[in-house]
Each structure stands twice: as C-alpha cells, then as structure tokens.
Design brief:
The complex is a heterodimer of chains A (126) and B (106). In chain A, a hairpin with a 5-residue loop joins strand 4 and strand 5. Chain A is mostly beta strands and 126 residues long. Chain A is built from no helices and 11 strands. The radius of gyration of chain A is 14 Å and the shape is globular. Chain B is mainly β. Helices cover 0% and strands 50% of the residues of chain B. Chain B contains no helices and 11 strands. In chain B, strand 9 and strand 10 form a beta hairpin. Chain B is globular, with a radius of gyration of 13 Å. Classes of the chains: A mainly beta (126), B mainly beta (106). Chains A and B meet through strand 4, strand 5, strand 9 and strand 10 of A and strand 4, strand 5, strand 9 and strand 10 of B.
C-alpha cells in the first residue's frame, strides 16, 4: 500500500525555522515527483512547493519563495521542506503528496496528486 | 493561473444532482483535477485531466470541460458526499487550487 507520513510540525515563534519530513513507502519513490500543500485554519487548499523525481527541478508558490526549500533524499525515500523566517500566515496543516504524471510538454509534467499523507500541523505564534 | 469556483457553497439534499464550476484565467487545455476534502482528513482525488475518474471513485462523480471552463457533477448525492470540493490546475509549474465549494446538507 502506498503511504506518506509527514513529521516535524510544531509550535514555533515568528522568525523561526522548522524542517518537515515526508516518509514514503509502498511505491518507487525515485520515479515520482512530489508536492507540499497546506491548509490554514478555516481556509482552502494552497499549493506550496513541488520537486521533480530526481530533485533537479523545484517549484514554489510566490509567498514562500526564498524562505522555504524543498529537497529529497531518494535512498531514504524521504522529502523535506525546510521553512525559514516563519510568519503567522504560515500556520497551517502541511500535507505531502505523490504526483502522478498524466501528460508531458518538454520538461513540464502535467499531474495530479494521487496519494496524500495525513498532514503535520505548523503553528507560528509567540 | 487563477481558478474561480462557483458556487462557494450550496445546500442540497440526498438524491439531488449537484454541479460545481471552475473557471481558469488562462487556457489550461485539459489539465484540471478535482479533489474532495473532509475535515480532519487529507484531500482525495476524484477526477484528473478533466474527466478521468480515479479508480475506486463512485461513478456518480463526473467531470467535463476544456480550455477555461470546467464542471464537476455529482448525481444522486449521497450522505458521504457532503464535503468541500476543490479544482486544481497543473498546466503551469505554479500549481493553483480553486477557493473551494462546500456542499452542505439542506
């Protein structure tokens, strides 16, 4: 069974840092692109970041660019999200997801998020 | 790419047919996905690439559209369908979700 398990969330002061982890099992990790998606309390889903299967290509939503860094360790079947300079608006449940490709155009991959973890909660507050 | 869903919320009864629309700010061809989200659980993909039903998802869910206008239809609404639904595009490297459409019990 394909599974994702997030960890690393918690309470952090504004300006602080956290590193989230996403441990994968049940599928060939190094052939899958991966994503981070968050949901702030009472709000909708927001895509945060994505990383290609090899880790060569990374993508970020504008609000976290330069503050968050996505990476992966394929031999450990784990993806990470390093979050620096955290702000109150980063408070959310963070989900990792496995991307399934449904089309290609050059280096771009069209995909959907097929498998999701149960999320880890990040609270930024003093 | 901005995604605008309508309605933002609706009330319906078991057995009703429900339609949710998603309009995109740019042509995204057919790369539009739909997710169902219930409180305390992760999102679940229902439909990908506009109209392909994910394995295991009931056939009462269907999707259609192209270009900039897309639709999710639920026929014969069941109690377990009361949830929030999100469209998502991956046509751009900067992925975006719609703001969500909450389906509530009338």
């Amino acid at each position: 069974e394909e599974q994702l398990l997030e960890s690393g969330g918690g309470l952090v002061q504004p300006g602080g840092s956290l590193r989230l982890s996403c441990a994968a099992s049940g599928f060939i990790f190094d052939t899958s692109g991966m994503s981070w998606v968050r949901q702030a309390p009472g709000m909708g889903l927001e895509w945060v970041s994505a990383i290609s299967a090899s880790g060569e290509h990374t993508y970020y939503t504008d609000s976290v660019k330069g503050l968050f860094t996505v990476s992966r360790d394929n031999p450990k079947n784990t993806m990470y999200l390093q979050m620096n300079s955290l702000r109150a608006e980063d408070t959310a449940t963070y989900y990792c997801a496995r991307n399934i490709v449904v089309g290609r155009s050059g280096i771009h991959r069209y995909y959907y998020m097929a498998v999701w973890g149960h999320g880890t909660t990040v609270t930024v507050s003093s | 790419i901005q995604l605008t869903q309508s309605p933002s919320s609706l009330s319906a009864s078991v057995g009703d047919n429900v339609t949710i629309t998603c309009r995109t700010s740019l042509n995204i061809n057919r790369y539009l996905n739909w997710y169902q989200k219930k409180p305390g659980t992760p999102p679940k993909v229902l439909i990908f690439a506009t109209s392909t039903l994910k394995s295991g998802v009931p056939s009462r869910f269907s999707g259609s559209g192209s270009g900039t206008d897309f639709t999710l239809t639920i026929t014969d609404l069941q109690p377990e369908d009361f949830a929030t639904y999100y469209c998502q595009q991956t046509s751009s490297s900067l992925v975006t979700f719609g703001q969500g459409s909450k389906v509530e019990i009338k």
